[in-house]
Specification:
It contains 27 helices and 23 strands. It is α/β, with parallel strands linked by helices.
Length: 721
């Protein structure tokens, strides 16, 4: 390949980043500025021009999709196989490291990765064994505590005790949780990262080996790293000073799950010889959208600073619509989508973005009533569905009898007459003898500890697992999966479920067989795992890969957090009201408010050509009807970048950014829809509907305190506010 092919497609700043000498590098990449292109071409430059071996490059990202795209682009650009390269997610690469060095990490070779749901179930079982009331001490809260401590690199033994009851109880469960995971060979997602960090930290020779092996370490979406991820990166690069990170402080929106925007600033002090390059040319959005987004985000303090621009012109103004209520908002959005489709646009080019999942219901109902196909992005993923997790749990137990989470999940699924009392006895035995649930069950059977009925049921389950393991030993992977879902009775169980739900479950199990058939098994994998073990790891680590069908022509619905990294020609950013977006919890917290503003910035910069911003004058959400106020974010957008849209397709320039829109005017009536009015008894409210004439004229008003009421205008004595 000619060197010019690597740098010719790049702009000036991208070229500087790609061809920079090996030193700590921070690339501040604005939305739509081509950061993936820079990472790929940087790797290609190092291999082609600087002569680095593909195996000496480490590239870390946050999603399997991004990692797959990076590998594909490198292969296409260099005409080489990227299979052996260390390109993957933090969790995926940590898993790879632990499989190769399980002994040094203090893990069994057959350790099993458990997902969030299995972790939750395990904690719930622990609470029961410890006689802790899960009503008073919710398992989800304890799960957050444990994962939060691990994300900060803190083991239970290292927590500094403060003496308060809450912390004592959390630590009690954290210690018990660590013990059962160690005994059962179970590793949760947070543990993958923490254990990989400890592996390198506590084994100097191993750390030295990988420091020398990886000549360059690249990180995508650096602003989303948490404490333990950054600590792991620093370990690998502290001697070589070879860390190349790409990030954007203006798109840091995951603080609630541990991401530390501070890592961007810490990078500059930890690597004093670093260089900063800003990518500000945007290849996605129009000039008006970028001007509005720049103005919005400029209200945040302490930014590293950049100004997005485009060479493609201003484009259309942003459309601003004030709905009377959430139903009117949904009607308006769906009508605009219908107009888009009627004019030849694709439904899949349209996204409806919202702050809260609860907002999707109104849009789903309207889309269904109009027969317009849609997809809720980020919905329940394939490998997270109950029927799939049940089948995988059988496969895990066949592979590893020490897997307590799998044992607990399927011992009575399908129902085989093993009751709560039997399970309690098994748990107690396991706890007292410090053995797995499987071994505890065998011990109790040998001691004749159960009634004849319970004993027969349990012996039947043990025989089923052993027989499945033996009979499937020489089968192809997909045949093993098929055998499990048939011989365990899962297929028959779900066939008995009435309606579409049961049919869907059966179809999903059949799709699991297809997934196993098409699974790409690398016999020369670094971890020396068998095909079944590799497939189970794939299911745990890459669950999102089989989610939905991106080729379907349907409207995309998603939360703003789910939208990051995506782009659409037409975007509706809905629910822009104070208390909803920004959320009520963030209004009085400057740090959280800035993250909400970054979230709005991310939402706006998803739009390529057409952007609609909407809010409702009144909204029923979470069972309450409220008088809504336009989001403060709307007031931070320049008026000249927006136009107000009225329901009869009329437009007008707003007097001030974020100004209220009155809505459709009823020509023959006294009051306007959306108008604020006052009543002597009911107080302040918003006009929702007007009907009738003369003495029969009446209005429907949503009062702030009294709710929705119909009033006859002849007697109401309403005051326009």
């Amino acid at each position: 390949m000619d060197v010019t092919e690597i740098i010719d497609p790049l702009n000036e700043m991208q070229r500087q980043a790609v061809t920079a000498p090996n030193q700590p590098m921070l690339v501040l990449a604005g939305a739509g500025s081509g950061k993936t292109r820079v990472l790929v071409h940087r790797i290609a430059w190092q291999i082609q021009v600087e002569g680095l071996s593909p195996q000496s490059i480490l590239a870390v990202t946050f999603t399997n999709k991004a990692a797959a795209e990076m590998r594909l682009r490198i292969e296409s650009l260099l005409d080489i196989s990227a299979r052996a390269m260390w390109i993957g997610t933090f969790h995926g690469l940590a898993h790879r490291l632990l499989r190769r060095h399980s002994k040094e990490a203090g893990l069994p070779e057959t350790f099993q990765v458990i997902d969030s749901d299995d972790q939750y179930r395990l904690i719930k079982r622990l609470l029961k064994s410890l006689n802790i009331d899960d009503g008073k001490w919710p398992p989800r809260q304890i799960q957050w505590f444990i994962n939060g401590q691990k994300d900060e690199g803190i083991r239970a033994a290292s927590v500094v005790e403060t003496g308060d009851l809450f912390q004592r109880q959390m630590l009690l469960v954290y210690r018990a949780y660590e013990e059962i995971c160690q005994r059962s060979g179970l590793v949760d997602f947070a543990e993958l990262l923490l254990k990989a960090h400890e592996l390198l930290r506590d084994n100097p020779d191993l750390l030295n080996f990988y420091q020398k092996r990886f000549k360059q370490v690249h990180v995508d979406e650096f602003q989303d790293t948490n404490t333990i991820q950054y600590a792991w990166l620093r370990l690998l690069t502290q001697n070589q000073q070879n860390l190349f990170v790409v990030g954007d402080d203006d798109q840091s929106i995951y603080g609630w799950r541990g991401a530390k925007i501070e890592n961007l600033f810490s990078f500059q002090s930890h690597y004093p010889d670093h260089q900063v390059i800003r990518l500000e040319q945007n290849y996605r959005s129009t000039g008006n959208i970028l001007k509005a987004a720049n103005s919005l985000i400029d209200n945040n303090q302490g930014r590293m600073g950049k100004e997005l621009w485009t060479a493609s012109g201003d484009g259309e103004p942003i459309s601003l619509y004030a709905a009377f209520n959430e139903q009117d908002e949904a009607y308006f959005v769906i009508e605009r989508i219908r107009k888009w489709v009627n004019e030849g646009g694709l439904r899949s080019d349209v996204a409806i973005l919202y702050r809260s999942n609860a907002q999707s219901r109104q849009f789903e109902e309207k889309l269904m009533s109009t027969g317009m196909p849609y997809r809720v992005y980020g919905g329940l993923r394939f490998f997270e569905r109950a029927e799939i997790k049940n089948a995988l749990a059988y496969l895990r137990l066949i592979s590893n009898r020490l897997d307590d989470a799998a044992f607990e999940r399927v011992i009575n699924m399908p129902t085989r007459g093993i009751g709560a009392k039997t399970m309690d006895d098994i748990r107690l035995k396991a706890q007292h003898t410090n053995k797995s649930l499987w071994q505890a069950a065998l011990d109790l059977l040998s001691e004749s500890a159960f009634t004849a009925r319970a004993s027969n049921a349990l012996q039947g389950f043990v025989k089923l697992i052993n027989d499945l393991a033996e009979s499937s030993q020489d089968l192809e992977l997909y045949e093993k999966v098929k055998s499990v879902i048939e011989k365990t009775g899962l297929i028959e169980t779900y066939k008995k479920e009435k309606g579409e739900k049961g049919e869907a479950r059966v179809e999903n199990l059949e799709e699991l067989v297809n997934a196993a058939r098409s699974f790409d098994y690398d016999q020369d994998n670094d971890e020396n795992l068998g095909e079944l073990e590799m497939f189970l790891s794939y299911a745990a680590l890459e669950a999102g890969e089989m989610q939905g069908n991106d080729s379907d022509d349907c409207v995309q619905l998603m939360t703003l957090h789910s939208a990051k990294g995506l782009e659409f020609p037409l975007v509706f950013l809905v629910g822009l009201e104070d208390g909803l977006f920004p959320s009520q919890q963030s209004v009085d917290d400057p740090g959280r408010l800035e993250e909400e503003r970054r979230l709005c910035y991310v939402g706006m910069t998803r739009a390529m050509s057409d952007l609609y911003l909407t809010y409702a004058e009144s909204r029923r959400l979470y069972g309450r009807e409220t008088i809504a106020r336009p989001s403060r974010f709307l007031r931070e957008i320049p008026a000249e970048t927006m136009q107000e849209v009225r329901v009869r397709a009329q437009v007008s320039r707003p007097v001030t950014a974020g100004a209220s829109i009155s809505g459709q005017i009823q020509q023959n009536n006294t009051f306007k829809l959306g108008q604020h009015v006052g009543h002597a008894k009911f107080g302040e409210g918003v006009v929702l509907q007007v009907e009738g004439e003369g003495a029969q004229e009446r209005v429907q008003i949503n009062f702030r305190d009294a709710g929705i009421k119909w009033l006859m205008l002849a007697y109401a004595k309403l005051e326009v506010l």
